Amino acid sequence: MAKPLLGHRSMEDDPSITPAASRTIGVLGSGDFARSLAIRLVCSGFKVVVGSRNPKRKAGLFPSAAEVTFQAEAVKKTDVIFVAVFREHYSTLCDLADVLVGKILVDVSNNIEINHHKESNAEYLASLFPACTVVKGFNVVSAWTLQSGARDGNKQVLICSNNQEAKRTIAEIAQVMGFTPVDMGCMSSAREIENIPLHLLPAWKIPIFLALGLFLCFFTYNLIRQVIHPYIREQKNKLYKIPIEVVNTTLPCVAYVMLSLVYLPGVLAACSQLYYGTKYRRFPDWLDQWLQHRKQIGLLSFFCAALHAMYSLCLPMRRSHRYQLIETAVKQAVEKKMNIWVEEEVWRMEIYISVGIIALGLLSLLAITSLPSIANSLNWREFSFIQSTLGFIALVISTLHTLTYGWSRAFDENQYKFYLPPTYTLTLLVPCTVILAKVIFSLPCIQQRLLRIRRGWEKGRYVKFVLPSATGEYSSGETSSNV
Amino acid sequence: MAKPLLGHRSMEDDPSITPAASRTIGVLGSGDFARSLAIRLVCSGFKVVVGSRNPKRKAGLFPSAAEVTFQAEAVKKTDVIFVAVFREHYSTLCDLADVLVGKILVDVSNNIEINHHKESNAEYLASLFPACTVVKGFNVVSAWTLQSGARDGNKQVLICSNNQEAKRTIAEIAQVMGFTPVDMGCMSSAREIENIPLHLLPAWKIPIFLALGLFLCFFTYNLIRQVIHPYIREQKNKLYKIPIEVVNTTLPCVAYVMLSLVYLPGVLAACSQLYYGTKYRRFPDWLDQWLQHRKQIGLLSFFCAALHAMYSLCLPMRRSHRYQLIETAVKQAVEKKMNIWVEEEVWRMEIYISVGIIALGLLSLLAITSLPSIANSLNWREFSFIQSTLGFIALVISTLHTLTYGWSRAFDENQYKFYLPPTYTLTLLVPCTVILAKVIFSLPCIQQRLLRIRRGWEKGRYVKFVLPSATGEYSSGETSSNV
Amino acid sequence: MAKPLLGHRSMEDDPSITPAASRTIGVLGSGDFARSLAIRLVCSGFKVVVGSRNPKRKAGLFPSAAEVTFQAEAVKKTDVIFVAVFREHYSTLCDLADVLVGKILVDVSNNIEINHHKESNAEYLASLFPACTVVKGFNVVSAWTLQSGARDGNKQVLICSNNQEAKRTIAEIAQVMGFTPVDMGCMSSAREIENIPLHLLPAWKIPIFLALGLFLCFFTYNLIRQVIHPYIREQKNKLYKIPIEVVNTTLPCVAYVMLSLVYLPGVLAACSQLYYGTKYRRFPDWLDQWLQHRKQIGLLSFFCAALHAMYSLCLPMRRSHRYQLIETAVKQAVEKKMNIWVEEEVWRMEIYISVGIIALGLLSLLAITSLPSIANSLNWREFSFIQSTLGFIALVISTLHTLTYGWSRAFDENQYKFYLPPTYTLTLLVPCTVILAKVIFSLPCIQQRLLRIRRGWEKGRYVKFVLPSATGEYSSGETSSNV
Fold it and tell me: Which positions fall inside the Ferric oxidoreductase domain (chains A, B, C) (predicted)?
């Protein structure tokens, strides 16, 4: 039951106990945000006075509990004023400068672009009203969140100001409204706060460019092999293959390579720990970044795999497929060839389709457990089992899918168009490296060493080291720099 | 890690500091809700006394920490009593009227239907026990939520009563139990509170009826064109087409039209703002309602599109497809016609299938980001980019899919059965209107005007107006009623 | 907006008001967990001193606000010390025993296996440092949650200790850090707490084994009928059918039977209530367990159904399908048989495919509403409507799918291989029982009785009983043991 209860008061702070809630709050402005702010303040138990240039026309927009009056009247009645107007209208408030002396102005504005102006909106407001205390806050909260109540992810309200007292006041108001205030420091943080809601999926930029880059590379490669080569060598027009067949041989390459790129950084990190013999050495920045983007890379891999499944399933729907089928049948009928069964071809397709569906099923499990609500209900062991163990199994099964699809074509001369190998051979490079590395890491000697390093052992340091054994007993040993 | 920890106490309110938690709470009743209530009260640190008509038989159902005794005994020991019995048993409690004088009774009951009785259950209870204070509360919480701990969406507990003190007491108890109490006012709100858990997906009623209505209309239209017309004109029995082919030409129409109906209200709102020259004029109720139901309309559109994809993919599976294929092959073999390749047909299918899969992929992104846990992790700019921008791109690509599917059939006389145009032409009306309107809105003059209106400019009002320019500088201008 | 705000302080507890936040906390250790702990403590406003064996080398890993020094120095400065080292290194801290006297040690360690050692890590630590107070806590929180901020599901921190004061202190610290402390009792609970993060999807074990068991049974049955029987009786090699066709006739059986097993316990529970004539009798343990695992059984059923759909859709893709199609066409062409249309076969496939897709669509709705974030936004009536009502409709439609797929094959002698009936007949047993039972329960006399029992009526007890009627009026009646 997640509907907002407008007009009703949360009882978490009783006005008779908490003076903050009997405070009068002023709101300047009459747009969407001002309206949502007024609604929320009223629901939280505050007295609200809205200052508008046209109180009579705008009164209908606001809840009845809020008093809508002229701007000058409104600011006289309160000490805290939310300035819910656009930056370009700040100067229109200069007439109120006298009345605003000594009051707290809360700048809730946002810009359209990152670093749109030389100074932040809050600093500009402060320069216009030097006798007031300006606090930057509430800009990361949307009007919808204000109206409908704070949800878990949107509960944080970032606040900064040069004045500690004012910050505390606004923080208390935010808490009563049901938000979690976070102190961001002085006014110099205002620019950073104003940039935060303008970020557009920052964690996805690199993975998306990576996917697009891989797509373009493999698409060109497949185009050359499947369309350009038949045209140049045999004068056959295979252009019709571009919308579905070329795309459908490109998407699985992107999905497969990206899936291996999810598990490669883990392998590199383990190599780094084995080489330096310690876990306390920081990874290079690029490896750190790569490790943090694994989830996005994995989800893009699943998206491409799902599209590949859709394209594959619609291959028999197409008119070109129908025409080719009928042509083959007619040719065989005319030649009266009755038996055309090639057992190897049949087995090849049965196996690689079946294995491909299993791989897609496992990848969908990984994608579903990435959803925030499900990931939060899993503990570390469960999450690690699904993402690491099941994920690696999915990588192995995808490799079987690729190998079975390719079958013996890598050894068939005809498959080398312009001396270019079949595409599937290129995609096998990174995944097979990852699988080989994981197999090597599972050898007892390497696994033991890695476990020791991860439990604190460091190469070259003389330290009395103990390892937990399978029975729970300890086996201790002195280690020196030669181990 | 989201398991409830039964038998363990949350430490957020230490009993030695908060007297509320050492309170004794009574529960009358021995059903599921009474049991869950007792479990939760015990976990929250309260002493619990359960009053039952058969304490010996019912004791096994309750946690050991709760004392199970006769009803008269139980009510003597406490001041606050949760009446966890069905409304029809309230009268059986009248024997306890003397002992209950001056105590707080909490009515937690629910009904089976909305407005099932003349007066709400709480008012009925109050009429039976005029010497007690009745508080309505906890009825929106399910027994499962009580046992397993409050989750984010189910945390709210609605409370109403004529007595402020009693309301405060019950609110404190709710807080200690981990819920968020919300004050709903006086006892007259009890009926509204009792109706709340009986609502059945209220936001979905209109979109579902809309989808069903569109489905019936298009289904009838397609039935006439694909089954009835061949029967009347050519005496061909095409009834077998009804389960899959007619359904599969209806579902995409419903999906496509509903997708355009998601973006049409935005266009109408922009038109309204342009016409009246202000953003402060309230939209008509029907437009407001329509804007609020866009998410449900969009999700239904995606559901129909996904079913359409399933039906399309299984077209080659069917026995009718197989028979038609073999018939064509046999006819061609008998006539010894070798080459049947029609390049235009091949290209038509390749393109419209490929484009259709891309549209479905984009729509699935929109559907996934509608999930509450993901929507909450996006900021406004990200959410707007995905739902507005990507969504409009999905609408454009769906239009390409429809146009390529239709190809030149709108200009082919034979396609007009009973003078009815091909179905796809009908579906293009609303989407093309929306796309055209959006294109017009992106023209610089219209876009500037819309931006001005959304930044506060009003037609007919003389106001010194400034616009943010691309460089962050301001261009001001005096505006008068002629602009 | 869910990013952590490192370096910024939550303002929920102002240091000038809450002494706890100006406390100095010590952290021993320099691994991932120690680092995440230090970051979170700094963000929460505490002064942090980190004790490491190599302060100079490790300082770079920690936030600048945390002071990194030698272990002996660090423990002198604080009263509360988080011991973030592995169990096997506890003995290395014995040198600090003198300095640690009277301080609170927080054991945050985890093990690799459940019950790995004879005593819990916390008890072991307490035995090494008898002069200190040991508190077990924070082990259920992952390093990632510490860094990124507490989410709803991961907010609980389990604490136990023999010392109440120490427990309260650590609980306050946990609250300031944004977690919800839960009191688990004395040190004897430490073992239980240490086992909690080691559980691996405990609710899924039984359903997964059930699914695997059903899969093996049906797979063997289908293998005998589809591969072994043709080989023995007709010497036909049908081994190629194993990867896709045999799997694709097994998966729907597993899905269908498991779907019926979701609704069977409800039927058994209702039977139990009708038989004993009361709702207050506890169900047997196995029925209770079964009722609690319904969600997992249902999700596995949906997963198998989705895989079945994928396998079915790729049947026309296969080379075997193509060869069979061409063979049939060639044979017909040679025999010049033009018309091969079998109306019954066509209708059979059209209906069962269409009905199957509808069933899958309904099951996907059930799966989606099982997601935590969506389930939490539904009230009880909505959840019950979707899971019970829509779910039962899905079961009925799946039964239609199975019956239409089977059609008249159960009456065809040739379908009985080795006298084994067609597989689909076996799968119909449990679902038809469930559907029949639900139909019987909906008969007015049985439905009334069940409703009476669920509203509190008990067979054999003389009680004045009232039932709510459709008009909201009450119909009372005396009931005696004969009813």
Answer: 254-396
Per-residue pLDDT band at A467 (split at 50, 70, 90): low
In angstroms, the CA B138 to CA B117 distance is 20
What average pLDDT does this structure show over C272-276?
Answer: 92
Distance of CA C15 to the CA centre of its chain: 41
Is residue A9 a contact partner of residue A44, using CB atoms and an 8 Å limit?
Answer: yes
- Of all residues in chain A, what percent carry a pLDDT higher than 90? 47
Q: What is the pLDDT of residues B299-310, one digit of tens each?
A: 999 999 999 999
Measure in Å the smallest separation between the Cα of C85 and chain A Cα atoms: 9
pLDDT tier for residue A44 given thresholds of 50, 70 and 90: confident
- Going by DSSP bridges, is the β-strand pair C133-136/C156-161 parallel, antiparallel, or unpaired? antiparallel
From A23-37, A186-200, B10-24, C320-334, the region with the lowest mean pLDDT: B10-24
User: pTM of the entire structure?
Assistant: 0.89
Closest CB to A349 among C10, C199, C318? C318
Whether residue B94 lies within 8 A of chain C, CB to CB, comes out as no
In whole angstroms, what is the distance from residue B275 CA to residue B283 CA?
12
Residue of A nearest to B313 (CA): A314
| Cα gap A268→A271, rounded to integer Å | 5
Task: State the sign of the Cα–Cα–Cα–Cα dihedral B154, B159, B164, B168.
Answer: negative
Packed helices B205-223 and B247-276: angle between N→C axes, nearest 10 degrees: 130
Nearest CA in chain A to C198: A381
> Is C295 part of the contact surface with chain B (CB cutoff 8 Å)?
no
Tell me the C-alpha distance between A199 and B381, whole Å.
7
- Is the pLDDT reported for residue C278 higher than 90? no
- A:B CB pairs within 8 Å: 180
Q: At B20, list the tokens.
A: 């509320």
| CB of A375 less than 8 A from some CB of B | no
Could A86 and B455 be called an inter-chain contact, meaning their C-beta atoms sit closer than 8 Å?
yes
Q: Could you report the per-residue pLDDT of B388-400, keeping only the tens digit for each? A: 999 999 999 999 9
| A382, A451, A462, A467: best to mutate for the C interface, most C CBs within 10 A | A382
Contacts of C214 (CB under 8 A, 6+ apart): C253, C254, C257, C258
Judged by CB atoms closer than 8 Å, whether chains meet at B327 and C333 is answered as: no
Q: Pick the more confident residue, A213 or A148.
A: A213
Do A381 and C323 lie within an 8 Å CB cutoff? no
Which chain A positions have a beta carbon within 8 Å of B390's beta carbon? none
A61 touches chain B (CB under 8 A): yes
Other Cβ atoms closer than 10 A to A314: 24
Set of chain B residues whose Cβ sits within 8 Å of the Cβ of A325: 325, 329
- Asked if the interface predicted TM-score (ipTM) of this complex is over 0.90, the answer is no
Which residue in this structure is represented by tokens 């699943």? A302
Residues in a beta bridge with A156: A180
**Test mutation, B18, B167, B176, B183, chain A, max A CBs within 10 A:** B183
pLDDT tens profile A202-253: 999 999 999 999 999 999 999 999 999 999 999 999 999 999 999 999 999 9
Flag whether residue B367 sits within 8 Å of chain C, measured between CB atoms. no
A319 contacts B346? CB cut-off 8 A: yes
Q: What pairs with residue A26 in β-bridges?
A: A49, A81
Q: Is the pLDDT of residue B43 over 90?
A: no
Q: Is the dihedral of CA A135, A141, A143, A148 positive or negative?
A: negative
